Amino acid sequence: MSCVDVDPDPPVYYAIDLVPTRKVPGARMAEGQGDVTFATSPFGVSISENGQYVYNLSVAMKNVTLKEGKALDVWVTTPNLDQVKHLGRLDEAFRTVGSVDWNKFLVVVTLESATADPGSTWTGPIVARGMSRSGLMHTMAGHGPFQSEPCAVYGYR
Amino acid sequence: MLKRLLRAVQAGSLLFGTFFIIGLSTSARAQDMDMHAGHNMDAPVMRGDSVLWRMPPMDMSMPMLPGMDTEVPITAAYLPGAGLDPMSVPEAKPFEILDVDDGDTIHLQAGLVRRQIGAQTLVMMGYNGQYPGPLLRVSRGANINVHFVNAIDQPTTVHWHGLRLDDYRFDGIPGISQAPVESGESFLYKLNFPDEGLYWYHPHMREDVQQDLGLYGNMLVNPISADFYAPVNREQTLVLDDILIDANGIIPYGKSAPTHALMGRFGNVMLTNGVTDFSMDVKRGEVVRFFLTNVANSRTFNVVFGGNPIKVVASDISRYEEEMSVSSVVIAPAERYIVDVLFDEPGEVTITNTVQAINHFRGEFYPSVQALATVRVDDTPADVSHAAAFEELRTNEEVIADIDSFRPYFDKAPDKELELTVRVNNLPLPVMRMMEIDTLYVPPIEWNDAMPMMNWVSTGEQVEWLLREKDTGRESMDINWTFQKDDVVKVRIFNSPRSFHPMNHPIHFHGQRFLVTHIDGVENPNMAWKDTAIVPVGSTVDFLVHMSNPGKWMAHCHIAEHLHAGMMLSFEVTD
């Protein structure tokens, strides 16, 4: 165990790497990151009435060239895509901040019309996407030390 | 076969090195279907004069980690009062309120008591034969004496949590401020109460045992000013705890070192004011002021008042700069919060601990709700309505003015930097292997014991929790800081997510007060003076400590098992 440098910025451990799809002209070399900090709370950590973490999610992109009339919108969605929320539109510095309180979530950056209001979900192509650190949690049934545990018994196919 | 192989490895007779992989032929996988059978889950409490280990209750649908099926903690099992007929010890009574005047001397005795937890009759511990211990109610500025008698079979001390005592020799820290009070001996504590608010007292020796068995009580320091708080209809202390029991009683503790050293001992039965079914009656429209204290060994609570509106008024040592509306109250071990709650609809309100627990085997979060207390709201309207005062979020100018003199220090460079981490040695091999996988995701706060078997078998002899100083590399009790009275010291604490087992830590500074100025670089917009605060996994928290009291003190994690696994340091404030 080595001593890790103290970093007063958002926790690196929970940072979300935004991976480009490389399919959108002007954004094929895009890079991005999402950072979470706790929403303001008198308790240090911010927790909802349902027990979920309430985060401020800050998203930043770079290496993007947008055509006139285009904008990048950031969305958060549950892993099975049944809920989608517009986090914000990236500003001129390609940054935005919003709030998220899901246990596991995906971050999706899409190319949209700069003049249209964002709807309930994205309509343009996906520029980059990432996953909350919690998304790394995966069933152990059938894997590693539990390889002899049949997945089907636990409801997995 | 695998079991024998693992034992041979653990014994050091087969392989050496830090990590390896074991393979099994398919035929070798035929093994006992009941993988929990080796842990004496239904074992009697004792055999002869010996307390027996038996596996703590757990989710039996979760498969046992291969290789763990006969593992038990390496320390001997221990249970105070084991073998005693519960009827031979006095029955504990609900706590009494002791109004203590300036100059008074009170008597406080730690002893064995008989408690009823649900349907079970158990031998536990209590101060003055009560659960919790007596509520000491004093006025700000009072000086009192406490004649303490130790009538349990272990050495103990009493720590007066949060009090900025004039004299550190009464802080209750064995080896620093006083010698242990041996069984049958007594000690005179001299206490002073410089700050209004809610405080608590508890042992500072083997808290994992003594505090868990019931040695805790509140102190309520009344303000001098009549309008210090907004008016309410009634006040109620809620002491939150949990206890780990099965059909045969309390799961034994480790004799020479705590069990549950990785995550702390989570209980499976919730206790509020020492009982499983605490309830109270209010009238419709009443505002109730709750004084919350978390005395659990490890559990952080997220307290929800059935959706009723909550206003946060104060925390450990002071009111907030500004009162706030919240939907729940997050309270870590040893923290206190004072909150007002409006009950404007008749009916029954269940106060709950509502969290998103984690099932690591399934890789999922799941909602976990435990009832803590019941509030019956009668349809009769409140005698006096304080609803308007409840709606007002007061700005506490006195608190702001007090904190103002510390604002110039908010952005100073840290004077001290600590990393929170852990070192392990000789844990069962399956635990070592599993942690490699388990730490793919670690939550900021562990709300539940997500790995009950691995946690149980980890002891303070194998797990060493560390406060590591960044500049010097010194660790825990090798750190001994020195400050001058009234120094304002920024201590930056980073909770490393890359350790063997990252976990949240409630950090407590003895004898002083501090402000949490920043979390992960974000300035805290609304502060209260604290003595204990959470450092979540992966986070960096800035503590601005006002070294107001000369003496020899400690700072430590307030998860009882982490404290006894080494997570503490000492510091001295010179006059």
Give a concise summary.
The complex is a heterodimer of chains A (157) and B (575). By secondary structure, chain A is mainly beta.
Biggest pleated sheet of chain B: 6 strands, mixed
Q: Please count the beta strands of chain B (DSSP E, at least 2 residues each).
A: 39
CATH class of chain A: Mainly Beta
| Quaternary | heterodimer
**How many helices of chain A?**
0
**What integer is the average pLDDT of chain A?**
90
CATH class of the domain at 407-574 in chain B: Mainly Beta
Topology, element by element:
The complex is a heterodimer of chains A (157) and B (575).
Chain A: E1 16-20, E2 31-38, E3 55-62, E4 70-77, E5 84-89, E6 95-100, E7 106-113, E8 126-131
Antiparallel strand pairs in A: 1-2, 1-8, 2-3, 3-6, 4-5, 4-7, 7-8
Chain B: H1 2-10, E1 46-47, E2 50-51, E3 77-78, E4 93-94, E5 97-99, E6 105-117, E7 120-127, E8 130-131, E9 133-139, E10 143-151, E11 159-161, E12 186-192, E13 197-202, H2 207-210, E14 217-222, E15 234-243, E16 245-246, E17 249-250, E18 253-254, E19 269-272, E20 279-284, E21 286-294, E22 301-304, E23 310-314, E24 319-326, E25 329-331, E26 336-343, E27 347-359, E28 364-381, H3 387-391, H4 397-404, E29 416-424, H5 429-438, H6 452-457, E30 463-469, E31 480-484, E32 487-495, E33 505-509, E34 513-519, E35 522-523, E36 532-535, E37 540-547, E38 551-557, H7 560-563, E39 568-574
